[in-house]
Amino acid sequence: MVNRCLLTANQNAVIPLRAQKISIEPHFESESVNIMAKHCFQILCTFFGVLTMEALGGERMSLETCCKTGRVYGLRNELCVSLPRVSHSPVCRMAQKQCCHAAVKERLCTEGMNSAKRNGLCDFSYFQTDPYKVNTAKMCCECCALGLLARKENQTCQLQISLTLHCRNVAQACCLEEEHGLIHQASPLLSNTTTGGGGNNQRPDLCAGVTRCSQLCVGNGSCVCLRGFYLKSDGYSCEDYNECLSGSHSCKTGERCINTEGSYRCQRETSCGTGYELTNSNTCQDIDECLVETHNCGHEFMCQNTAGSFRCHPRHQCGSGFIQDAVGKCIDINECVHEKSPCQFGHTCINTLGSYMCQRFSVTCGRGYHLNTEGTHCIDVDECTRHNACQGHECVNLLGSFRCDCRSGFMFNSISKTCEDNDECKIYPGKLCAHKCNNTPGSYRCSCHSGFKLASDGKNCEDINECENNPCSQECVNVYGSYQCYCHRGYQLNTMDRHICEDIDECATGTHNCSASQSCFNILGGFRCLSFECPPYYRRATEGRCERLPCEQNSGCQSLPLKISFYNLTFPTNIPVPAAVFHMGPTSSVPGDNIQLHIVDGDAEEFFSIQKTAHGGVVSVQKPLLEPRDFLLTVEIRLIRYGITSIFVAKIAVFVVPDQPGLSNNWPKF
Predict the structure, then answer these.
(1) What domains does the chain contain, in order, with CATH numbers?
(2) What radius of gyration do the chain's Cα atoms show?
């Protein structure tokens, strides 16, 4: 293949040079060393971008020439020191050095390969002071022995074990030479015996000096190629054999053939799916989520790997001889059912709880079987006839076991051999009921949140109109799933139950608009601003009371009441009749007092009445008041004590307010 390499020769010019693939003529049998040398000088070309030294200012000399001088030196010497200087170019010097090292390694590797071919021994004690030589020769010897062994056992020369590229190529070369009967010897580095004349006992090698073969030289000097290559028409070059194009590959359906140098590989075209990964051998392998810690099991659970997934089990450790089932229970391990019996030959394994025991041969039946009456063999136990195995479900006997055909809403647990309730609410969350799902044995039941009732379909929920039951003392507004109570003006909801409307005392809270000269009187749902003035001949004694001024003798004011008192009273129209609403009388009583009471004004329609009591009187409502009204009753009280008559007047302002359901009827006593 032709590349273009560029190298800056000086500050002013860039010299383009044509580069071609370097052809190293090997003089050794180690294919890995051959490939290593080729790659080394291809890298030199790529890195420096030149095949001649002329671009570096040195004398014109090709890399092949530089390499050849280093190689010759390496074949004749043990160390690559004091290399002959054939050029002042640093690139040429590097080529010499690398080719020399490759030649030394070639000789060491060839010696190791030949040792394996001769006697299979890989002992190189004659390299007493150089571990590098021992390791190199021994590695090639052992790798060659692997290739010879593979051929001897009629295995493929492409060893399917994890070897280095160098070792794999050495093993393949020895295997292929053995296949073609090409066992030949190369000159060893050092002879085990020496002669006084400095001679050696080396046998002639027809491949010695043959450098044109790109891969292997056989004993007669011919060139051969490794498996996966074919010899080109020039007789020494090897070309890769494309198994994918020729159809000689063994890739299966669903795999794609990819050609490689000297071989091919099959690549899977479809993914392995969730929970699996593709291995180097092109097969799908389960991912152990528990091992790589990609699971989501909590601290209280234990991860168990499954094919393509994992399970989380409660972290409950079972004792020796027990195993945890799918629901976290510890069940006994039947050691006797394993393929390899734990007992010696001639003994029978008997399972026990958490263990087992070995007994000399006798008929012992496993779980689900029992001895026949003769004690000669085991017969099935019909669990369905012995006890209530399925607890009300249908029992089906099986050989050595049984199963339960569970009713609807239950599922059979093959481990515990029981019918377990299906929690439909957990299996189908949010799909069965509109609001709340309550599991029941074998079924489920729907219920609704507060403020709703279950519809006729048993699944949906309908809003309840709570206002139909009048839960509020005044106004009720139904809302979705609930209701809200509201009050009329002048009322507010009770802060405790939020249902009862309570009167707002504007006079106490200061939210009235009465003037400074007026007094505020609270009524249900509002207030009144009241004021009073004492009539002539009277003075204001206290708030709401006027007293008569002293009169001259024989004056007409002596017939006026001694005191005029003002009172305020309020109640709703729903007050029960008759109802005492106001009590009155002297502050103190004396035996012999005579009290006379009369409503003298303000009750033209006779809604009120007054009755005498032991020490005074009481004003009562005697007729129903059907609508709000205001009254100003004038009540006269005559007290006759010791023959003297004293007159008192009570001005009672009565405010009848609208009926308020739910309010207390316990009116204050006066």
Answers:
(1) 2-188+207-236 (no CATH), 534-657 (2.60.40.60)
(2) 60
